[in-house]
Structure formats: structure tokens, C-alpha cells
User: Fold Trans-aconitate 2-methyltransferase from Terasakiella brassicae.
Amino acid sequence: MAQWNPHTYLKFGQERLRPALDLLAQIPLEQPQTLVDLGCGPGNVTALLKQQWPNARVIGIDSSPDMLSQARENHPGIDWIETDITTWQPDQKTDLIFSNACLHWLGNHDILFPKLLNHLNEGGVLAVQMPNNFAAPTHQAIRDVLGADHPLCPGYPVSDCRDYYQWLAPECERLDIWETTYTHVLSGDNPVADWTKGAALRPVLDGIKDKGEKQVFEQAYRKRISQAYPPLANGRTLLPFKRFFMVCLKK
Ligand SMILES: C[S@@+](CC[C@H](N)C(=O)[O-])C[C@H]1O[C@@H](n2cnc3c(N)ncnc32)[C@H](O)[C@@H]1O
Assistant:
């Protein structure tokens, strides 16, 4: 599996934090006893969950040892577990499963999401945020440069909101689904290409093994991105970024 780099990922930390805070603000729980952050990464969002509910047992789960070592170093008082979400089986049911910017990396949402709901206590909450910008130039440029049939091309992992509703509604008291497009104001030379390097581009760059080929790809990609997201007169670059949110309150 391609490795995550906490430093590259955290480069746009503030912009990446905002949707997590927007998700957190919608969780209808007073005093969860146990909560799990799936795909916790470097742990900065998990720490906010702990801050919101200091008496809860908080568990951060991730498959990346580099991300978890940063989380362990910076955030004591939280249990960090290295495991793959697709095979994760909790010892006991939990009150909250939170996941920010992770589940779009996993397939088979028709199986995964009902399974996650099953790991909740009665009245528990599944709260998920996923990017939903797979048709944007950031991703289309990868397909254009590699060719649409290339195995490293990104797919469209987030399903239609009606699908999530139908998979989950029978087990839910309330199901709140919404989408938001954030407009990130970025600085620097070709900052959108730097942004994708910390996420969508990561498996592509890891997957191109030949150094020369990687360089050619990256140059062509950066050129397309600088054309698709040109700087404004004040030097700033705007990145519109659509995200999908869901808060399910289990019956
Ligand atoms: C974009 S980061 C998000 C980190 C954190 N949730 C945040 O909001 O800052 C995605 C994280 O999901 C983790 N991840 C991806 N696939 C995973 C899987 N199958 N099992 C566990 N973790 C996974 C990655 O290792 C990475 O740390």
C-alpha cells in the first residue's frame, strides 16, 4: 500500500481541518463513553474529539505507521491502533464512529457503511466526511496525462447520496446528508498541484516506479493544473473543493 506522509498532508492543515470541524459540530451526542476515529492520520482531529469529550475513551485507527507515530508523539491520552479499516473488528460496540477524509480510499461502500453502523451501540452515531471532487480538474488531469484506462487513474469512489440513504436508513433514527463546496484561497506557485501531492496524487506518484517517467508525469500534471487553476491578480489561487457529509443516528 502507498505510504502516507504526515508532513506533506499537513501542509494545508487549516484548510483540511475545516470540514472536520463542520462535521464535529453536527454530532448529536452529549456524553459518548467510547469513540473511534477511523483513518485518524496524524491525530490532530482525533485530539479535537478528545477535547470535546474528555471523559470518553478515544481510539484512533489507521493503517499508516508513519501517521500513527506522529499521532502517538503529539497526542497522549488516546489509544492508537494500527489496523486496516476493511478488516477492523472492535472488541465491543461504540457510541461514535467518526471518519474524516478517509473512507473514499476504501471501496464497497454498500457493504462497509452498514457494517460500520453495526459496530455502534443503540443511539450511536456514524459521522463521515469524504471529498467528492473526483470529476474536478485536479483528478481529471491525472486521467488526461496517464490515459483514462491507466490502472493508476483515480476512480469515483463516493456514491450518490440516494445510495447511502437506502443502505443506511432502515437502521437509522435520523440520517443527515449534505454537500458543501469550500473555496480554498491558496498562496504560492501552483499551490493546487502541491495540495494534491498530499492526497490524490500520492498513490499515482508511488505507483510510477521509474524515476524518469515519474518526473515526466509530474511536469505534465503540474502544467495542466497551473492552467486549470491560474492565480488571480493578487497572486492567490482559488481551489473549489466539494465534500460529502453524513451523520447517521442509529435506532
Ligand atoms: C487524508 S488522511 C485523513 C487523516 C485524518 N482523518 C484527518 O482528518 O486529518 C487519510 C488517512 O486514512 C488512512 N487510511 C486509508 N485507508 C485506510 C485503511 N484501509 N485502513 C486504515 N486507515 C486507512 C491513511 O493512512 C491516512 O492516514
Residues 94 and 120 are 5 Å apart (CA to CA). The chain has one domain: 12-182+241-250.
